[in-house]
Structure formats: structure tokens, C-alpha cells
Design goal:
- With 259 residues, this protein is α/β, with parallel strands linked by helices.
- The chain has two domains: 106 residues, no CATH class; 138 residues, no CATH class.
- Helix content is 33%, strand content 20%.
- The protein is globular and about 60 Å long.
- It starts with a helix and ends with a helix.
């Protein structure tokens, strides 16, 4: 829709983050982080890593001695739609844009020596509030419709998450700290506002985020998003309640405070 594509970008992830590991002057691994739905076109019956995977592959060829791994950030409500018309050729255009961001981050690499004591993992386990629409009786009824996979499969997923949560299972949020770098590992299809808030919490540090960890919650919106509409926060898309935002924000702040 040309009118929709003419709209402002809105809230997006404005920068790609990168963490690389070296043995002297030889790069061994390159980890990149950026939040955007990796969808240009799909449902063609051919598996594809889409434009982020193509960008990663191009950079792999440019620095062949290092393993390149790309992590999708908190992109639950961010896509490339403004710059994507769904055409086949546009996938490469998006890939080259992301490749350029990866190269810029690579060119800005700042190396420092790391000892074993400089690498720290921290974990914060939180109980995410369940969405009110999770009804065990209805989910079991839908589950019994095994001959209708579009009904039974989502019911099985939601029922499993409901039962695990009621049994006291908590969701792990993790942080990797190396020097002034902090990499947060988050659950679900997280909204980008969480990633942007994390960066604002520690502006003097280099904060990156990888989402899509424990996918039990499905989409995780901001509190206000649950009253604003959109499929991401509807019952078919999210298993958590609007009160999830302060819980996650507090957990993120706790992890980032660990120096």
C-alpha cells in the first residue's frame, strides 16, 4: 500500500550492534544484533534465511576466518514494510542495507584484551503474568480436535505454557557481560521498546539484545499496546497479560546493574 509505505518509520531499532572475538589479529567469531522482522516475501515452499541471512552470508565471505552469527533483537512490532514492496528483487536490497550496517559496525571495532574473569553470565528468573484468555477447559477441548491441526496445535502450545506457569516455572532472562559490552537474552517475540529502554538504562555501555528465546509467551507487548489493537497483542498471539511490562523492565534493570 503506497499510502502506508509513505508513513513515517515510527519506533525502530536505529543501530546494529556487534561483538567479535579475536585471537590476536585473527577474528574468530562475529555476533551481530538487530531488531527487524526477517520477512521480505515467504510462503513459496522454499526455506530461506531471508534478508538477514543473506547479509550474514555476504559478511561471512568478506571475513572468512570468523564464524558469523546474527541474532534478531526485540522486533515483535518492527518490520521492513516501509522499504519492502514484496518483490523478489527487494529481498537483496534489504540484505545489502543490513550488510552495510554490519560492515559499518565491523569497521568501528574497538579491540580490548579479555581475561577469564572479564566474562560474566547473569540470570534473572521471572514469573510472567498469564493472559486472562488462557482457559484450560477450552484449550483441552480444542486439543481434542486433533484432526484440525490449526486448532489443536496452538491449543497444545498454550496449554503447555499455562500448566508450566501454574506449576511455578519461571522464565530466564540472561546477560553476557564482557568489558563494557552487555548482551541481554530475552524471551518471546518482544516489542522493540524493551530493547530501546535497555539501552537508555546504561547509556555509557554497549547494550545489545537477542530476543526469541523461550517462546512460551509468544508476543510480548508493552502495557499500552494491549489496549491499542493490532494482532500482536490479541489472544491468538500473546500468552501474557499487560502487566508483563513492569516485570520485564525491572528484570532488565536488575541485570544491567550487575557490574
Amino acid at each position: 500500500d503506497p499510502k502506508l509505505r509513505a508513513e513515517p518509520e515510527g519506533v525502530i531499532d536505529p543501530e546494529l550492534s556487534m561483538l567479535s572475538f579475536w585471537n590476536g589479529d585473527i577474528p574468530l567469531a562475529v555476533l551481530s544484533y538487530y531488531a527487524c522482522h526477517p520477512q521480505s516475501y515467504y510462503r513459496v515452499g522454499i526455506p530461506s534465511p531471508d534478508f538477514p541471512g543473506i547479509a550474514r552470508f555476504i559478511r561471512q565471505q568478506s571475513v572468512p576466518s570468523a564464524l558469523h552469527v546474527h541474532f534478531n533483537g526485540a522486533s515483535g512490532n518492527v518490520g521492513a514494510g516501509k522499504y519492502n514492496d514484496g518483490s523478489k528483487k527487494n529481498r537483496m536490497e534489504l540484505a545489502l542495507r543490513l550488510r552495510d550496517g554490519m560492515k559499518q559496525a565491523w569497521d568501528d571495532t574497538r579491540k580490548f584484551t579479555v581475561q577469564s574473569g572479564d566474562v560474566r553470565w547473569s540470570v534473572s528468573s521471572v514469573a510472567l503474568p498469564l493472559a486472562k484468555h488462557l482457559d484450560e477447559v477450552k484449550l483441552r477441548a480444542d486439543l481434542s480436535k486433533g484432526s484440525v491441526p490449526p486448532v489443536a496445535v496452538p491449543a497444545a502450545e498454550r496449554l503447555a505454557y499455562l500448566q508450566r506457569s501454574r506449576a511455578g516455572h519461571k522464565t530466564d532472562l540472561a546477560q553476557l557481560a564482557i568489558g563494557d559490552m552487555r548482551v541481554l537474552h530475552m524471551p518471546g517475540e518482544l516489542f522493540v521498546e524493551y530493547q530501546l529502554a535497555a539501552k537508555r538504562m546504561r547509556p555509557k555501555l554497549n547494550v545489545a539484545m537477542a530476543a526469541y528465546g523461550d517462546y512460551g509467551p509468544f508476543y510480548i507487548g508493552t502495557e499500552r499496546a494491549y489496549s491499542e489493537g493490532g494482532y500482536e497483542t490479541q489472544p491468538r498471539s500473546s500468552n501474557v497479560a499487560p502487566e508483563v511490562e513492569p516485570i520485564l523492565m525491572q528484570a532488565i534493570r536488575h541485570l544491567l546493574s550487575m557490574d
